[in-house]
Amino acid sequence: MARISRHERKQRKKEIVWGAVALITALGILASAMTYVFLNRDDVIGAKTLCPAGGPRGHYVLLVDTTDRMRFAQKLAFDVIFRDIIEKRMPEGYLLSIFVMGEDVRANARPLIEICNPGRGADKSEWTANLERLRRRYEERFRKVLLDQAATLVDSKPAKISPILETLQMVGINAFRRHDVQGERRLIMVSDMLHHTPRFSMYRGIVDYETFAASGYARKVHAELTGVKVEIHYLINTPELQTRRNLAFWENHFNSTGAQIVAVRPMEG
Q: Where is the chain membrane-spanning (predicted)?
């Protein structure tokens, strides 16, 4: 077998060294690319809704009654409630659907906006996540987007009717049933809770729920809200009608839908 010359041995060593350098460089580039993708990935967040890939972990629905103009103090109280939901109460991965209630049920049958809380990244490590990017996404694509809707929810014109029952039916169909979230399901209502339509009006006097429930109208507006926890924030516009008997009507009604009232609070103003 022929001997390898000293020059050839040196040449081969150079080739091995440069090959190793090239391999290390390539691995470094690959590692950097993988790190960048890992820190900036969107594989667990929906591009538009910001919801987890596996679906929302819970579902909050905010229903705001816009059939009466809010007074100044009521607007301030609503702003506190709205910010509290967005900034403190709503867990990461939960979906928020916002509905408005006006006199045109069809026009308001779909949510004004639907978006999940993507989280601020508070539970993440800077070694495994881009914390600044997560914070910016939360502020710009979640918090700001929702707060920009606040004016739409409080600036309204008085309406001739207040179709609370029909709107609840739409919420059951286009929010809770449509998404069918298996986690917590909560309905937060801001309303005077005085239903008023030609077929049925609470302005005509005290309403007996059993009489209402036996009517054809009650069957027509029945809603499916199984497992939903309901919070009511009362807009006190007609105190003489917004009595304990009014609340009892709604307790019975929500029980008939499979839901349960868990909190009631009169709003300031």
A: 16-39
